[in-house]
Amino acid sequence: MSGPAVVYWVETSERAGEEELAVAARRAFAAAGLGSRVRGLTAVKSHFGERGGKGFVPPRVIREVVELVRAAGGTPFLTDTTTLYTGRRTNALDYGALVLEHGFTPEAVGAPFLCADGLVGANETEVPIEGVHHRSVALAADALRASSAVIVSHATGHLATGFGATIKNIGMGLASRRGKLRQHSRLRPEVVADRCIGCEDCLPNCATGAIGPDARRTGKTPVMAIDAERCTGCGECLASCRQDAIRFDWKVGSRQLQEAMAEHALGWVRRMAGRFGCLTFVAHVTKNCDCMGRREAPLCPDVGVLAGTDPVAIDQAVCDLLRERNGRTLEAMSFPKLDGSVQLAHGERIGLGTRRYELVRVG
Hints:
Low-confidence stretches: none
Mean pLDDT: 93
CATH topology of the largest domain: Rossmann fold
Number of domains: 2
Shape: globular
Helix content: 25-40%
Number of strands: 16
CATH superfamily of the largest domain: LarA, N-terminal domain
Structural class: alpha/beta
Order of helices and strands: EHEHEHHEEEHEEEHHEEEHEHEEHHHE
Radius of gyration: 20 Å
Strand content: 15-25%
Protein backbone atom coordinates (compact mmCIF):
# COMPACT_ATOMS: atom_id res chain seq x y z
CA MET A 1 0.00 0.00 0.00
CA SER A 2 1.38 3.39 -0.94
CA GLY A 3 1.81 6.09 1.67
CA PRO A 4 -0.29 9.20 2.19
CA ALA A 5 -0.42 11.91 -0.45
CA VAL A 6 1.07 15.30 0.35
CA VAL A 7 -1.29 18.27 0.29
CA TYR A 8 0.12 21.78 0.63
CA TRP A 9 -1.94 24.47 2.34
CA VAL A 10 -1.46 28.23 2.21
CA GLU A 11 -3.82 29.82 4.72
CA THR A 12 -5.47 33.14 3.90
CA SER A 13 -7.49 35.66 5.86
CA GLU A 14 -11.17 34.91 6.46
CA ARG A 15 -12.26 37.15 3.56
CA ALA A 16 -9.35 37.02 1.16
CA GLY A 17 -9.23 39.51 -1.70
CA GLU A 18 -7.99 38.78 -5.22
CA GLU A 19 -4.42 39.90 -4.58
CA GLU A 20 -4.12 37.78 -1.44
CA LEU A 21 -5.49 34.75 -3.29
CA ALA A 22 -3.04 35.32 -6.15
CA VAL A 23 -0.11 35.40 -3.74
CA ALA A 24 -1.41 32.28 -1.99
CA ALA A 25 -1.73 30.49 -5.33
CA ARG A 26 1.87 31.35 -6.21
CA ARG A 27 3.16 30.04 -2.89
CA ALA A 28 1.10 26.86 -3.06
CA PHE A 29 2.17 26.19 -6.67
CA ALA A 30 5.83 26.56 -5.71
CA ALA A 31 5.59 24.49 -2.52
CA ALA A 32 3.94 21.60 -4.36
CA GLY A 33 6.51 21.73 -7.15
CA LEU A 34 3.81 21.91 -9.81
CA GLY A 35 6.14 23.70 -12.22
CA SER A 36 8.05 20.44 -12.72
CA ARG A 37 4.93 18.93 -14.30
CA VAL A 38 4.43 21.71 -16.83
CA ARG A 39 5.45 21.21 -20.45
CA GLY A 40 4.30 22.39 -23.88
CA LEU A 41 0.67 23.34 -24.44
CA THR A 42 -0.70 23.58 -20.91
CA ALA A 43 -4.40 23.68 -20.07
CA VAL A 44 -5.41 25.92 -17.18
CA LYS A 45 -8.74 24.28 -16.41
CA SER A 46 -11.17 26.30 -14.33
CA HIS A 47 -14.84 27.28 -14.18
CA PHE A 48 -15.38 30.74 -15.62
CA GLY A 49 -18.87 31.28 -14.25
CA GLU A 50 -22.41 31.53 -15.53
CA ARG A 51 -24.05 34.83 -16.44
CA GLY A 52 -25.03 36.65 -13.24
CA GLY A 53 -22.64 34.71 -11.01
CA LYS A 54 -19.49 36.02 -9.32
CA GLY A 55 -18.20 33.13 -7.23
CA PHE A 56 -15.64 31.81 -9.74
CA VAL A 57 -11.88 32.13 -9.26
CA PRO A 58 -11.28 35.71 -10.51
CA PRO A 59 -9.19 36.80 -13.53
CA ARG A 60 -6.43 38.26 -11.35
CA VAL A 61 -5.83 34.85 -9.80
CA ILE A 62 -6.02 33.00 -13.11
CA ARG A 63 -3.45 35.44 -14.49
CA GLU A 64 -1.11 34.42 -11.68
CA VAL A 65 -1.49 30.75 -12.65
CA VAL A 66 -0.92 31.60 -16.32
CA GLU A 67 2.30 33.42 -15.42
CA LEU A 68 3.47 30.50 -13.29
CA VAL A 69 2.86 28.09 -16.17
CA ARG A 70 4.74 30.31 -18.60
CA ALA A 71 7.64 30.72 -16.17
CA ALA A 72 7.85 26.92 -15.93
CA GLY A 73 8.24 26.66 -19.71
CA GLY A 74 4.65 25.94 -20.71
CA THR A 75 2.39 27.62 -23.25
CA PRO A 76 -0.82 28.23 -21.28
CA PHE A 77 -4.41 28.35 -22.47
CA LEU A 78 -7.64 28.54 -20.46
CA THR A 79 -10.13 25.74 -20.91
CA ASP A 80 -13.45 24.29 -19.79
CA THR A 81 -16.30 22.39 -21.43
CA THR A 82 -19.87 23.12 -22.50
CA THR A 83 -22.91 22.20 -20.40
CA LEU A 84 -26.07 20.09 -20.66
CA TYR A 85 -28.37 22.78 -19.33
CA THR A 86 -29.54 26.14 -20.61
CA GLY A 87 -27.45 29.26 -20.11
CA ARG A 88 -24.46 30.91 -21.72
CA ARG A 89 -22.25 27.81 -21.74
CA THR A 90 -24.22 25.39 -23.92
CA ASN A 91 -21.91 25.95 -26.90
CA ALA A 92 -18.35 27.13 -27.39
CA LEU A 93 -19.23 30.45 -29.04
CA ASP A 94 -21.54 31.65 -26.28
CA TYR A 95 -19.22 30.38 -23.58
CA GLY A 96 -16.25 32.09 -25.20
CA ALA A 97 -18.15 35.38 -25.23
CA LEU A 98 -19.11 34.93 -21.57
CA VAL A 99 -15.49 34.26 -20.62
CA LEU A 100 -14.54 37.64 -22.10
CA GLU A 101 -17.47 39.37 -20.37
CA HIS A 102 -16.28 37.99 -17.05
CA GLY A 103 -12.87 39.58 -17.57
CA PHE A 104 -10.84 36.59 -18.76
CA THR A 105 -9.53 38.39 -21.83
CA PRO A 106 -6.12 37.51 -23.30
CA GLU A 107 -4.95 40.98 -22.34
CA ALA A 108 -6.09 40.58 -18.71
CA VAL A 109 -4.96 37.01 -18.03
CA GLY A 110 -2.26 36.48 -20.64
CA ALA A 111 -3.77 33.47 -22.39
CA PRO A 112 -6.66 32.64 -24.77
CA PHE A 113 -9.69 30.47 -23.99
CA LEU A 114 -10.52 27.21 -25.78
CA CYS A 115 -13.52 24.91 -25.20
CA ALA A 116 -11.93 21.49 -24.82
CA ASP A 117 -14.99 19.62 -26.09
CA GLY A 118 -15.54 21.62 -29.28
CA LEU A 119 -18.45 23.66 -30.58
CA VAL A 120 -21.31 21.67 -29.01
CA GLY A 121 -19.61 19.18 -26.71
CA ALA A 122 -19.05 16.46 -29.31
CA ASN A 123 -15.24 16.70 -29.62
CA GLU A 124 -14.49 13.69 -27.44
CA THR A 125 -12.24 10.74 -26.82
CA GLU A 126 -13.32 7.44 -25.27
CA VAL A 127 -10.83 6.37 -22.61
CA PRO A 128 -10.89 2.77 -21.30
CA ILE A 129 -10.98 2.39 -17.51
CA GLU A 130 -11.65 -0.37 -15.00
CA GLY A 131 -14.56 1.21 -13.18
CA VAL A 132 -17.52 -0.21 -11.31
CA HIS A 133 -20.09 1.52 -13.53
CA HIS A 134 -18.06 2.26 -16.67
CA ARG A 135 -15.55 0.41 -18.81
CA SER A 136 -14.80 3.56 -20.77
CA VAL A 137 -15.48 7.25 -20.25
CA ALA A 138 -16.15 10.03 -22.78
CA LEU A 139 -13.80 12.96 -22.19
CA ALA A 140 -13.18 16.30 -23.90
CA ALA A 141 -10.62 15.51 -26.59
CA ASP A 142 -8.51 18.65 -26.29
CA ALA A 143 -8.22 18.16 -22.53
CA LEU A 144 -6.28 15.01 -23.41
CA ARG A 145 -4.32 16.54 -26.29
CA ALA A 146 -2.76 19.13 -23.98
CA SER A 147 0.81 18.35 -22.99
CA SER A 148 0.09 19.20 -19.35
CA ALA A 149 -2.55 20.86 -17.17
CA VAL A 150 -3.17 22.84 -14.02
CA ILE A 151 -6.60 22.15 -12.51
CA VAL A 152 -7.88 25.30 -10.79
CA SER A 153 -10.89 24.41 -8.64
CA HIS A 154 -13.28 26.33 -6.37
CA ALA A 155 -14.78 24.42 -3.44
CA THR A 156 -18.56 24.91 -3.07
CA GLY A 157 -21.68 23.08 -2.06
CA HIS A 158 -23.54 21.23 -4.80
CA LEU A 159 -27.22 20.38 -5.15
CA ALA A 160 -26.58 16.86 -6.46
CA THR A 161 -23.23 15.82 -4.99
CA GLY A 162 -23.20 17.63 -1.63
CA PHE A 163 -20.00 19.44 -2.46
CA GLY A 164 -17.81 19.96 -5.49
CA ALA A 165 -14.10 20.68 -5.71
CA THR A 166 -11.20 18.98 -7.50
CA ILE A 167 -12.84 15.66 -8.42
CA LYS A 168 -15.90 17.38 -9.81
CA ASN A 169 -13.82 19.92 -11.73
CA ILE A 170 -12.05 17.05 -13.50
CA GLY A 171 -14.74 14.37 -13.70
CA MET A 172 -17.66 16.55 -14.75
CA GLY A 173 -15.70 19.54 -15.98
CA LEU A 174 -13.56 17.61 -18.48
CA ALA A 175 -16.26 15.20 -19.69
CA SER A 176 -17.78 15.61 -23.13
CA ARG A 177 -21.54 16.06 -23.48
CA ARG A 178 -21.91 12.28 -23.81
CA GLY A 179 -19.83 11.82 -20.67
CA LYS A 180 -21.98 14.27 -18.73
CA LEU A 181 -25.15 12.50 -19.86
CA ARG A 182 -23.77 9.17 -18.68
CA GLN A 183 -23.00 10.63 -15.27
CA HIS A 184 -26.53 11.99 -14.89
CA SER A 185 -28.20 8.84 -16.23
CA ARG A 186 -29.77 7.81 -12.90
CA LEU A 187 -30.60 11.31 -11.65
CA ARG A 188 -34.27 11.99 -12.39
CA PRO A 189 -36.39 14.71 -10.77
CA GLU A 190 -40.07 14.43 -9.91
CA VAL A 191 -42.72 17.11 -9.35
CA VAL A 192 -44.40 17.21 -5.94
CA ALA A 193 -47.94 17.99 -7.10
CA ASP A 194 -49.26 19.47 -3.87
CA ARG A 195 -46.43 22.03 -3.81
CA CYS A 196 -46.46 23.03 -7.49
CA ILE A 197 -48.41 26.25 -8.19
CA GLY A 198 -48.07 26.10 -11.97
CA CYS A 199 -45.89 29.23 -12.17
CA GLU A 200 -43.85 27.68 -15.03
CA ASP A 201 -40.57 29.22 -13.82
CA CYS A 202 -38.95 25.85 -14.52
CA LEU A 203 -39.89 25.74 -18.21
CA PRO A 204 -37.22 28.07 -19.67
CA ASN A 205 -34.53 26.30 -17.65
CA CYS A 206 -35.11 22.88 -19.25
CA ALA A 207 -32.78 22.44 -22.23
CA THR A 208 -34.65 19.42 -23.61
CA GLY A 209 -38.25 20.56 -23.14
CA ALA A 210 -38.92 17.71 -20.74
CA ILE A 211 -41.17 19.80 -18.47
CA GLY A 212 -44.76 20.79 -19.25
CA PRO A 213 -48.28 20.94 -17.79
CA ASP A 214 -49.54 17.58 -16.55
CA ALA A 215 -52.20 16.56 -19.08
CA ARG A 216 -53.76 14.20 -16.55
CA ARG A 217 -54.97 17.11 -14.41
CA THR A 218 -57.65 18.51 -16.73
CA GLY A 219 -59.90 21.09 -15.13
CA LYS A 220 -57.59 21.48 -12.13
CA THR A 221 -54.89 23.99 -11.22
CA PRO A 222 -52.04 23.45 -13.71
CA VAL A 223 -49.22 21.34 -12.31
CA MET A 224 -45.97 20.59 -14.10
CA ALA A 225 -44.86 17.10 -15.04
CA ILE A 226 -41.47 15.79 -16.20
CA ASP A 227 -41.00 13.42 -19.13
CA ALA A 228 -38.43 10.93 -17.86
CA GLU A 229 -37.48 9.89 -21.41
CA ARG A 230 -36.45 13.44 -22.37
CA CYS A 231 -34.94 14.46 -19.03
CA THR A 232 -31.13 14.51 -18.81
CA GLY A 233 -31.01 14.87 -15.02
CA CYS A 234 -29.07 18.15 -15.16
CA GLY A 235 -30.88 19.61 -12.11
CA GLU A 236 -31.66 23.06 -13.52
CA CYS A 237 -35.37 22.68 -12.73
CA LEU A 238 -34.58 21.97 -9.08
CA ALA A 239 -32.46 25.10 -8.87
CA SER A 240 -35.13 27.31 -10.47
CA CYS A 241 -38.14 26.15 -8.40
CA ARG A 242 -38.91 28.54 -5.56
CA GLN A 243 -41.74 26.37 -4.21
CA ASP A 244 -39.53 23.36 -3.42
CA ALA A 245 -41.85 21.40 -5.70
CA ILE A 246 -39.16 19.44 -7.54
CA ARG A 247 -37.35 16.64 -5.76
CA PHE A 248 -34.72 14.02 -6.50
CA ASP A 249 -34.37 10.56 -5.03
CA TRP A 250 -30.98 11.46 -3.63
CA LYS A 251 -30.29 8.01 -2.18
CA VAL A 252 -30.13 6.62 -5.71
CA GLY A 253 -29.24 9.57 -7.89
CA SER A 254 -26.54 11.31 -5.87
CA ARG A 255 -24.53 8.18 -5.12
CA GLN A 256 -24.60 7.05 -8.74
CA LEU A 257 -23.66 10.52 -9.96
CA GLN A 258 -20.74 10.89 -7.56
CA GLU A 259 -19.36 7.47 -8.41
CA ALA A 260 -19.70 8.07 -12.16
CA MET A 261 -18.04 11.46 -11.74
CA ALA A 262 -15.07 9.88 -9.96
CA GLU A 263 -14.75 7.28 -12.73
CA HIS A 264 -14.66 9.98 -15.42
CA ALA A 265 -11.99 11.77 -13.40
CA LEU A 266 -10.03 8.51 -13.28
CA GLY A 267 -9.93 8.31 -17.07
CA TRP A 268 -8.41 11.77 -17.39
CA VAL A 269 -5.98 11.39 -14.47
CA ARG A 270 -4.65 8.07 -15.81
CA ARG A 271 -4.05 9.54 -19.28
CA MET A 272 -2.36 12.65 -17.86
CA ALA A 273 -0.33 10.90 -15.16
CA GLY A 274 2.71 12.95 -14.13
CA ARG A 275 1.63 15.88 -16.29
CA PHE A 276 -0.86 17.77 -14.11
CA GLY A 277 -1.17 19.54 -10.80
CA CYS A 278 -4.08 20.94 -8.81
CA LEU A 279 -4.81 24.24 -7.09
CA THR A 280 -8.03 24.24 -5.08
CA PHE A 281 -9.43 27.46 -3.63
CA VAL A 282 -11.35 27.17 -0.36
CA ALA A 283 -12.49 30.78 -0.45
CA HIS A 284 -15.90 32.37 -0.94
CA VAL A 285 -17.42 28.94 -0.35
CA THR A 286 -21.08 29.16 -1.36
CA LYS A 287 -24.10 26.88 -1.02
CA ASN A 288 -24.34 26.33 -4.77
CA CYS A 289 -21.69 25.74 -7.39
CA ASP A 290 -20.51 28.38 -9.88
CA CYS A 291 -22.93 27.03 -12.49
CA MET A 292 -25.70 29.01 -10.81
CA GLY A 293 -26.15 32.40 -12.43
CA ARG A 294 -26.54 34.40 -9.26
CA ARG A 295 -24.44 35.98 -6.56
CA GLU A 296 -24.35 34.16 -3.24
CA ALA A 297 -22.96 35.08 0.15
CA PRO A 298 -20.24 32.78 1.51
CA LEU A 299 -21.28 30.07 3.95
CA CYS A 300 -18.18 30.33 6.10
CA PRO A 301 -14.82 32.10 6.49
CA ASP A 302 -12.16 31.44 3.85
CA VAL A 303 -9.57 28.74 4.54
CA GLY A 304 -6.98 29.28 1.80
CA VAL A 305 -5.46 27.47 -1.18
CA LEU A 306 -4.55 23.78 -1.38
CA ALA A 307 -2.12 22.28 -3.89
CA GLY A 308 -1.01 18.80 -4.84
CA THR A 309 -1.28 16.04 -7.40
CA ASP A 310 -3.87 13.74 -5.81
CA PRO A 311 -7.46 14.99 -6.33
CA VAL A 312 -8.93 12.65 -3.72
CA ALA A 313 -6.46 13.73 -1.03
CA ILE A 314 -7.00 17.41 -1.82
CA ASP A 315 -10.78 17.10 -1.60
CA GLN A 316 -10.52 15.12 1.64
CA ALA A 317 -8.36 17.92 3.04
CA VAL A 318 -10.93 20.49 1.88
CA CYS A 319 -13.67 18.63 3.77
CA ASP A 320 -11.57 18.15 6.90
CA LEU A 321 -10.45 21.78 7.09
CA LEU A 322 -13.98 23.09 6.64
CA ARG A 323 -15.33 20.70 9.27
CA GLU A 324 -12.57 21.61 11.73
CA ARG A 325 -13.10 25.33 11.21
CA ASN A 326 -16.91 25.33 11.26
CA GLY A 327 -17.88 22.35 13.39
CA ARG A 328 -19.85 20.75 10.54
CA THR A 329 -19.30 19.51 7.02
CA LEU A 330 -19.77 21.52 3.84
CA GLU A 331 -22.77 19.34 2.99
CA ALA A 332 -24.34 20.11 6.37
CA MET A 333 -23.95 23.81 5.60
CA SER A 334 -25.40 23.50 2.11
CA PHE A 335 -27.36 20.32 1.30
CA PRO A 336 -27.63 18.29 4.53
CA LYS A 337 -29.53 15.40 2.91
CA LEU A 338 -26.50 14.53 0.79
CA ASP A 339 -23.29 12.68 1.59
CA GLY A 340 -20.45 14.11 -0.48
CA SER A 341 -17.96 11.59 0.88
CA VAL A 342 -19.27 9.06 -1.65
CA GLN A 343 -17.03 10.55 -4.34
CA LEU A 344 -14.01 10.34 -2.02
CA ALA A 345 -14.63 6.73 -1.01
CA HIS A 346 -15.29 5.63 -4.58
CA GLY A 347 -12.31 7.58 -5.89
CA GLU A 348 -10.05 5.75 -3.46
CA ARG A 349 -11.68 2.40 -4.29
CA ILE A 350 -11.02 2.69 -8.04
CA GLY A 351 -7.49 4.09 -7.74
CA LEU A 352 -8.13 7.76 -8.47
CA GLY A 353 -6.24 8.69 -5.31
CA THR A 354 -6.08 8.22 -1.56
CA ARG A 355 -8.00 9.76 1.32
CA ARG A 356 -4.88 9.50 3.47
CA TYR A 357 -2.79 12.63 3.29
CA GLU A 358 -0.08 14.64 5.00
CA LEU A 359 -1.06 18.29 5.26
CA VAL A 360 1.94 20.58 4.88
CA ARG A 361 1.23 24.10 6.01
CA VAL A 362 3.22 26.59 3.93
CA GLY A 363 4.39 29.38 6.24
